[in-house]
Request: fold
Amino acid sequence: MRRAVITASATAAGVVLLLSLKPHDPSTAAAISSSPVAGGPRSSAGPTSSPSAPSPSASSTAASGGTRTVTGNAVNTRYGPVQVRVTLDGSTISKIDVIQYPNRDRRDQEINSYAVPELNQEAMAAQNAHIDVVSGATYTSDGYTRSLQSALDRAAKK
Reply:
């Protein structure tokens, strides 16, 4: 009889815990940009007011003076897509815009508010996609580096 009461209580507690989980709802993410300053790389964490639509493939646009902008593939992560747009001046990365990143709930926003500027700063300093993962933002870091590498690969082909 004791076992039945304990089993029923444990089952009820498990059901309550499962029902209290909140699913991630799809949403769009704001863009985060980084651009260099005279003293070195600087990142800007202010989201823009216009969200960007997902892009399944990379695209690029050319500007005058050897400056070109290349958009990397949108990389799906466990918590949502990550996509970057790189501005290159010759072969030097001059600006990185994160046009998609997980931003569904408060926790995603908290994590990415420090992770994305840190990733931008590291990539600007390294001038490639071989950067360290930000602790606590492993999935975003992985998506960021994969999208950045796809953008740099596209830029190399042009």
Summary: Helices lie at 2-20, 106-126, 138-157. Residues 25-30, 36-65 have pLDDT under 50 and may be disordered. The radius of gyration is 20 Å. DSSP finds three helices and seven strands in the chain.
